[in-house]
Amino acid sequence: MANHQLLVLAGDGIGPEVTGAALQVLDRVAEIGGWVVEIERADIGGTAIDTYGDPFPEKTQRAIDKASAVLLGAVGGPKWDQAPKRPEAGLLAMRQYMGLWANLRPYHVFKGLEHLSPLRKAQVDGIIFRELTGGLYFGEPRGRRFLPGDLEVIDTLQYRRSEMWRIIKLAFEYARDHHLTLTSVDKANVLESSRVWREVTDELSKQFPDVPVVHRYVDASAMDLVLNPDRYQVIVTENLFGDILSDLAGGLVGSLGLLGSSSVAGTPGTRGLFEPVHGSAPDIAGKGIANPTGAMLSLAYLVGWSWSESEAQQLIESAVAESLAEGPHTPDLGGNASTEEFTQAVIQRLEHIWQRRKIS
Ligand SMILES: NC(=O)C1=CN([C@@H]2O[C@H](COP(=O)(O)OP(=O)(O)OC[C@H]3O[C@@H](n4cnc5c(N)ncnc54)[C@H](O)[C@@H]3O)[C@@H](O)[C@H]2O)C=CC1
Ligand SMILES: CC(C)CC(=O)C(=O)O
Ligand SMILES: [Mg+2]
């Protein structure tokens, strides 16, 4: 009987609501799969600041050390916007602590939700490989420097070639395995880091002669993703650009609540951090109406990647897709279902799919 250790970091805002929904799905999947899942919980972000005065406390680090996978909700909120160390800093520190340099963010229009995409006729189906532990979010020096009569602020965009190499190579491998085009997004007309990014992409391209490669500037690709999303299949880009373009992808498919993600260190079967692409959504937190799809898909990626349970991954993804096709829908998708109602629909679908598979 499989035994898995899961750490749940529900976080702030809608984090507890969407991870709670995903855990209900996990309960049923574990029952079907005959697994024992030991679930531990710890604090991250704003709730960790409230309890420990630190957005990524030592206790959470120790809990990560013991887990075989981590499911995260979201962090942040107006309550902590002026905190000396913000909740978001805890998430960044955790990604770095876990060494998770690759962030995979798939997006596609679900059957039944075509009307929600602003681009009803175009094919919207891709995946963003976002570098996760380098660039502007981590570079030093950073901060404020008081000058006579002025203030200077510094953020540093810093990368090592090796950090670029590993994420671009991972994206090439994915594009090769799925026979897709790779688009490398940068700002090589301005940034030195982007020029090296392009050099690395061109060098790696020689190892993957079957993968068509396109270079695009980030500003132009933001425009082009909206006008011609069908040109994009696999996107590889650095940390900040990937963060921005993945929210744009959320818009392309109709709601940010629909996207899940995997943050990993490149090798399947190893520990990763799995979280929806969205944030803590303070505007809807506590109302019971958050769309838990992103969290459920993140759970699906978790069981597939860290626990090598590919059948369970497929089961969750199918149950979510069928529920989105049939409804009910949460308000972000134009419906009036609660998080709980949608979650129950997914669990029912799961049962149906499982029964169908047992019979056939
Ligand atoms: N990974 C994380 O923990 C992230 C945290 N944040 C933090 O979250 C806080 C809020 O940031 P925002 O810019 O407002 O971004 P957000 O992603 O939380 O929300 C943007 C918009 O999308 C909607 N939305 C997001 N997720 C949804 C869901 N599951 N169902 C239905 N609607 C959903 C929200 O209601 C809001 O209108 C900030 O403190 C920010 O720093 C932001 C992004 C990622
Ligand atoms: C809140 C940030 C630390 C991260 C973010 O927006 C993201 O990972 O999508
Ligand atoms: Mg983001």
UniProtKB/TrEMBL annotation:
The keyword Hydrolase belongs to this UniProt entry's keyword annotation: no
SMART domains per record: Iso_dh (SM01329)
CC terms in the record's Gene Ontology section: cytosol
Bilayer-spanning residue ranges: none
Keyword terms, alphabetized: Amino-acid biosynthesis, Branched-chain amino acid biosynthesis, Leucine biosynthesis, Magnesium, Manganese, Metal-binding, NAD, Oxidoreductase
Location of the Isopropylmalate dehydrogenase-like domain: 5-346
Catalytic activity reported: (2R,3S)-3-isopropylmalate + NAD(+) = 4-methyl-2-oxopentanoate + CO2 + NADH
Cofactor(s) the record lists: Mn(2+); Mg(2+)
EC category: oxidoreductase
An example Gene Ontology biological process: L-leucine biosynthetic process
Keyword Repeat: no
Cited PANTHER family: 3-ISOPROPYLMALATE DEHYDROGENASE (PTHR42979:SF1)
Name under which the protein is recorded: 3-isopropylmalate dehydrogenase
Organism (species): Sulfobacillus thermosulfidooxidans (strain DSM 9293 / VKM B-1269 / AT-1)
Source lineage: Bacteria, Bacillati, Bacillota, Clostridia, Eubacteriales
